[in-house]
Design a protein that fits this description.
This protein has two domains: 6-196 and 225-233, 3-Layer(aba) Sandwich (Rossmann fold); 241-327, no CATH class. It is 20% helix and 23% strand. It has eight helices and 18 strands. The strands form four sheets. It has an eight-stranded mixed β-sheet, with helices on both faces. The protein has a five-stranded mixed β-sheet with strand order 12-13-14-18-15. Helix 6 links the parallel strand 5 and strand 6 (157-163). It starts with 5 loop residues before the first helix and ends with a strand.
């Protein structure tokens, strides 16, 4: 299979490998009822070390899972799967352990070899995708557009990690606008930290800034990523109404220079009595209730236009990107 970015596909495993178990558990706890009787696929995951696999294996009976499949891109690094170099892509097909449902010893689980390289776009991985009900993983950020497009093509439910900037991708934002994808339960402002391999710790310390690229917590170095959760599974948070207290005045809410919409600098400042188009910060997506508001576009690709068409200018000054919304009619 032609592969335009093998190194990026390979890094899918590395992205996921260091996802913290606590972050996974915190997010997935909001979807427990969705997993009963379902087959879960983690298709960017080394099953021997994946915290996604560990979570679902430990919670297999509690969640009432039917089946757990994990696949990963082939290793080109020694000591990743074992003490010997492994050039094969591997996968695991797990049906639970009825005798010891709460075991943490997965060393006896047989890891199988894939015929191909384990790329999520390969034919054999797509066949496994077809068998899954819900996909949960941390895909490679560089291939995020292709990854999500594949999930949409095969009509899969999912909970995945992506770069926060993906919100603004012209391939991703229309899915948000059309309520085919939304932000997970974890707030966008929450930092996601990833364990850093020893060989990378020194490089981070020498070349990156603490607080932005990494943080030291209890003496341990963690990589910091502009990552958030994306999903198409429903949560209670998604249907909670925002309550507003401010009233509209033309002075406090001026219109953009070249678009008939008012500017709102904070989500909490959305006027309760304005029914026209409003430009609000991207953080609105954290609190977006589709029964309360319609998303019309954003200030760069608005009204479904896929060509750049900036409108977020106010008195000649360019503002940060805005989401264009309108209150639903009662």
């Amino acid at each position: 299979m032609a592969n335009s970015n093998l190194s990026s596909a390979k890094n899918a495993k590395n992205d996921e490998f260091y996802t913290q178990l606590g972050d996974i558990e915190k997010e997935l706890s909001h979807y427990k009822e969705c997993f009963k009787g379902k087959t879960v696929l983690c298709n960017c995951d080394d099953p021997r070390v994946s915290n996604f696999f560990k979570f679902f294996a430990l919670k297999f009976s509690e969640l009432g899972l039917k089946r757990l499949i994990t696949t990963c891109y082939k290793s080109q690094d020694a000591d990743l799967f074992s003490q010997n170099e492994c050039e094969s892509a591997v996968y695991l097909d797990y049906y639970g352990n009825d005798a010891h449902p709460n075991t943490t010893d997965f060393s006896s689980i047989k890891v199988k070899t894939l015929k191909g390289d384990g790329d999520f776009r390969s034919a054999e991985c797509i066949e496994l995708l077809k068998q899954a009900d819900i996909v949960v993983t941390n895909p490679p950020f560089s291939l995020f557009r292709e990854y999500v497009a594949q999930l949409v093509k095969y009509d899969k439910k999912f909970v995945i990690i992506g770069n926060k900037n993906a919100i603004t991708y012209k391939e991703i934002f229309p899915l948000i606008k059309d309520n085919k994808l939304w932000i997970g339960d974890t707030p966008m402002s929450t930092d996601l930290f990833f364990s850093v391999p020893k060989e990378n710790e020194k490089k981070l310390l020498e070349t990156k800034k603490e607080g932005s690229a990494y943080r030291i917590i209890n003496g341990k170095i963690y990589g910091r990523s502009q990552s958030i959760w994306f999903t198409n599974l429903e949560t209670k948070k998604r249907h909670e109404n925002l309550v507003f207290y401010k009233k509209y005045t033309p002075e406090e809410y001026p219109k953009y220079d070249n678009y008939d919409a008012i500017n709102v600098d904070k989500v909490s400042d959305i006027p309760e009595d304005y029914n026209g188009i409003m430009g609000v910060p991207i953080t609105f997506l954290d609190k977006y209730n589709p029964e309360q508001f319609d998303i019309l576009g954003d200030s760069r690709y608005h009204d479904g236009n896929t060509e750049p068409n900036d409108i977020n200018f106010l008195n000649g000054k360019e503002l940060y990107r805005r989401i264009l919304i309108r209150r639903k009619k009662s």
